[in-house]
Amino acid sequence: MKVTGKITKFLDKETGTSKKTGKEWVKQTVLVETAEQYSNIYPIEFFGDEKVRNLNKYQKVGDNVDVEFNVNANEWKGKYFVSLQGWKISKSSANEEPIDAPPFETVNETDLNTQENDNLPF
């Protein structure tokens, strides 16, 4: 899935140790707000040292971003928990400044009505 919005907040990094493998892990959640009227705040988790480093290195609060993510659901003691697992984040084209176009020339109406013989076949 993909969402486009503005980064409003970085939550604190979380770290821990995997019970199965004993390896250290890190994750960080970023809040992305869209322009939609309802359900417009997405808490997206980035899991893994490299993804968290890249998230903090290239993104900041206020940036417009495109985020690609997977929806992950887990069951625990009869309750279900859903998380959004980000796997790609990039600056949105909304960050780009508009290009200034050259101004249009103003033409008098009398100039348009004046016919010149320019030898065109039509």
Summary, kept brief:
This protein has 122 residues and is mainly beta.
Secondary structure: elements and pairs:
Layout: E1 2-10, E2 14-17, E3 24-33, E4 41-47, H1 49-58, E5 64-76, E6 79-91, H2 109-113
Parallel strand pairs: 4-6
Antiparallel strand pairs: 1-3, 1-5, 2-3, 3-4, 5-6
The backbone outline, from C-alpha atoms, is elongated
Strand content: over 45%
Q: Could you name the CATH topology?
A: OB fold (Dihydrolipoamide Acetyltransferase, E2P)
| Major sheet | 5 strands, mixed, barrel
* Structure annotation, total helices: 2
Q: Report the CATH superfamily.
A: Nucleic acid-binding proteins
Distance between the termini: 55 Å
Task: Give the number of DSSP strands.
Answer: 6
Helix content: 10-25%
CATH class: Mainly Beta
- Total individual domains: 1
Q: Which regions are unreliable across 5 or more consecutive residues at pLDDT < 50?
A: 97-102
Integer-rounded radius of gyration: 26 Å
Tell me what the structure shows.
By secondary structure, this protein is mainly β. It has a single domain (2-94), classed as OB fold (Dihydrolipoamide Acetyltransferase, E2P). The chain is built from two helices and six strands; from the N terminus they run ββββαββα. It has a five-stranded mixed beta barrel with strand order 1-3-4-6-5. It is elongated, with a radius of gyration of 26 Å. Residues 97-102 have low confidence and may be disordered.
